[in-house]
Amino acid sequence: MASPHHSLLSLAASATTFSIILLCCFTLIEALNGGFSVDLIHRDSPDSPFYNSSETHSQRVAKALRRSINRVNHFKPSSSVSPNLAQTDIISNSGEYLMKYSVGTPPVAILGVADTGSDLIWLQCKPCTECYKQAAPIFDPEMSTTYKSISCTSSQCESLRKTSCSNDGTSCQYSVSYGDKSFSNGDLAVDTFTLGSTTSDRPVSLPETIIGCGHDNNGHFDAKGSGIVGLGGGTVSLVSQLSSSISGKFSYCLVPLTSRDEKSSKLKFGSEAVVSGPGTVSTPLVPNSPDTFYFLTLEAISVGSKRLELSGSSGSGGLEGNIIIDSGTTVTTLPTEFYSEFESAVAEEIDLERGDDPSQFLSLCYKPTSDSIEIPSITAHFTGADVKLNPDTTFIQINEELLCLAFRANQEITIFGNLAQSNLLVGYDLVKKTVSFKPKDCTKL
Q1: Which one of 166, 209, 213, 427 counts the least CB within 10 Å of its CB?
Q2: Which has the closest alpha carbon to 23: 51, 2, 48?
Q3: DSSP reduced 3-state for 48
Q4: Each residue of 294-332: pLDDT tens digit?
Q5: Contact, 201 vs 193, CB < 8 A?
Q6: Of 64, 136, 126, nearest to 93 (Cα)?
Q7: Three-class SS of residue 136?
Q8: Annotated catalytic, 89?
Q9: Which candidate, 115, 120, 100, places its Cα nearest to that of 211?
Q10: What are phi and psi of 125, to 5 degrees?
Q11: Which residue has the higher pLDDT, 121 or 35?
C-alpha cells in the first residue's frame, strides 16, 4: 500500500543533512546512576554555527550529497583491510553531527565532529607544527592543570592502533589520516572532559578521559570546529570510555525537518537510552572488523507488499554483518544488483514523469505535478527486526522541480544512512550487542 506523502515543502526540509550540534553536559553522578540526555541541534538550524541564511535549499542538498559521496567512498573494503582503519574511518569534513563539550581545567569550550563511525576523541592543540584555521582559540594543554601525557608503554597507548613513542621515548604519539588526505598527529593524553545534561543543571567533569592532542593537523576541516569526538565501538571512543557508567547503552531520535515544531533531537545515555515497549524491534550487532563500526544484517527490503531478498547480491561474504548503521552518511546505499531490483519495484508504484538528478548522484527522480504524491511504503527487514521507514525521508527534493529516491547503488559497501533513521528511536546496547528501533515522534521527547 502506498502512503500519502506530505507536501513538497516538507520534503525539501527533509533533504538537507542531518548534521547537528550536541549541546551537552552530564554529571558523573547521573552517569553512575545510568542515565542522562543531551540536545541535538540540526546543522541547518539558525542555532547552528554552520547556518548560512544565504544558502538556497538546492545548495544545501548538493553539499549533503557531496559529503555522502565522500563518506561512502571511505568505507570501501579496499581500505577496510588496513589495521589502522579504526582510527582513520571518516572523511574529515563529512561528519553529519557536531558536539559541543569542554576539556581541561579550567574548562575550554570545544566544538568537534561527533561520529558513530570514529573512535578517538582528538582536538587541535598548541603548540602547532601545522594547524588548520580554527575560529575558536586553540587548546593549550600547558594551561590545564589536569592534562597528562600518556606513556608509550601504557595499556592506553597499546589499545590504540597506529601509535608510536616520542623522540625522547616518554610519551605516546597518535596518527590518524583520512580518505581525503586530511590528517592529525599529536600526543595521546588524558584530561578532564566536561558535558552538560538536559536533565540536570550541574555540569560535572569526567576525569582522565583519553584524548588526542593534535599538534600537526591539516586538510578539509572546517574552521568552526576542532577535531573529532568518536562514538564508535572501539576501546578509546567516548561511548566505550563511559561504558561502565552507562551500561553500554546510548540512543538517539532525530526530529525530521518536516516538523514545524522547533524541538531538538535527543541523544541519550544509560538507563534513559533503553528502547522498549510496544512497537520495539531489535536486531543483533554483528562482530566485524574494524570494531569501530556498528554492523547489522539486512535480509530484505519490502516495497509495498513486495519483499525483495538480498540473497545472492551481498558478495562472497554472505549476509551476516552486511550493512553498517551510520550517523554520518546521509543516504542509504545498497549492493548494485539489489539496488536495481529495489529501484524498479519503487518505480512500479509511482506514475509520474521521470527526471534526472543534475549531480547524477541519485538515479530515480520524478517531476511532481502537485504538492502531494503517493510514496510506496518501504520496510527494511533486519534479522529479527522489520523497520518501516518514514515516507517523508525515503525521497528527498533536489530542487523545486525534482524529487529523488534517497538510496544509492554501491557494490562495495552497504550503509543504513541517517535519512532512513529519522523519526525512529534508535537504541544501541553494547552489552547485549543489539540495536533496537521504535517508531517515535521525536518532537515528543
Answers
A1: 166
A2: 48
A3: coil
A4: 999 999 999 999 999 997 544 445 789 999 998 878 889
A5: no
A6: 64
A7: coil
A8: no
A9: 120
A10: -135, 150
A11: 121
- Residues with Cβ within 8 Å of 398's Cβ and at least 6 positions away in sequence, in order, are 15, 58, 61, 357, 358, 359, 362, 365, 404
For cell 525530521, the residue is: 256
Whether the Cβ atoms of residue 414 and residue 400 lie closer than 8 Å to each other: no
7 touches 14 (CB < 8 A): no
Higher pLDDT: 290 or 318? It is 290
Active-site hit among 89, 187, 191, 326: 326
C-alpha cell at 426: 534508535
Q: How far is CA 234 from CA 102, 282, 290, 408, in A?
A: 22, 22, 8, 28
Rounded to whole angstroms, the Cα distance separating 187 from 163 reads: 9
pTM of the model: 0.82
Q: What angle do CA 267, 270, 272 make, to 5 degrees?
A: 65
* CA-based R_g, the chain, Å: 21
Instruction: Look at the block and give the residue holding cell 570514529.
Output: 118
Quick: pLDDT tens for 85-115.
Answer: 222 222 334 456 677 789 999 999 888 877 8
Query: Catalytic one among 89, 115, 187, 392?
Result: 115
Grid cell digits, residue 6: 506530505
